[in-house]
Design brief:
Elements (H helix, E strand, L loop, with lengths): L1 H6 L3 H23 L2 H18 L9 H19 L21 H20 L2 H12 L4 H8 L3 H18 L5
Helix pairs in contact: 2-3, 2-4, 3-4, 4-7, 6-8, 7-8
Length: 174
């Protein structure tokens, strides 16, 4: 209902939608891009694009799903435009501090996070997007397919290849 009102030009309805969806979209973009500031810019661009496109919004998908696709596509375009050695150190979230852990255990955890970030950099942008949407965002394959604009089988293949590459890269940490 808010999306319909916003499509009719109701700025207050769109403001509610922005407040409701900002944090999840920023979290998604940060996971995909690995940089909070760049993620915020991408989400802001996505909201501007959504505002401009609202008159064409048909309501076939929920507004959040529609916005999810806009944000994902914006991030994919940014990832494709990057140099191959993108910095994804910001993607990995540090583990909750364990006050009983030793400095050696903390150093080991940091090393594992660095290795995971390096392994993520080795994935193609398309594999990374599909893997993040599936493994971190817990999106079903059909939803990812609609979001990225490929078949569910292609999504499964990309997630499979990403899992295999990450498993191989992280074998030392098993």
């Amino acid at each position: 209902m808010l999306a319909v009102r916003a499509a009719e030009g109701d700025e207050e309805a769109f403001e509610v939608l922005v407040h409701r969806h900002s944090m999840p979209m920023i979290q998604l973009a940060t996971r995909l891009l690995g940089n909070r500031a760049e993620a915020e810019d991408a989400v802001q661009d996505a909201f501007v694009s959504a505002w401009r496109s609202l008159p064409e919004y048909r309501g076939e998908a929920m507004f959040g799903t529609w916005l999810h696709r806009i944000v994902t596509n914006r991030c994919l375009n940014l990832l494709r435009a990057r140099r191959p050695a993108a910095d994804l150190d910001a993607v990995a979230e540090p583990a909750a501090p364990d006050h009983q852990s030793s400095p050696a255990r903390a150093a080991e955890s940091q090393a594992a996070v660095r290795d995971l970030a390096q392994a993520m950099r080795a994935l193609s942008a398309e594999q990374r997007v599909c893997w993040v949407l599936r493994e971190i965002e817990a999106q079903p394959y059909d939803t990812i397919a609609r979001t990225v604009g490929i078949s569910p089988e292609a999504v499964r293949a990309r997630v499979f290849r990403a899992r295999r590459m990450l498993t191989e890269a992280m074998a030392a940490w098993r």
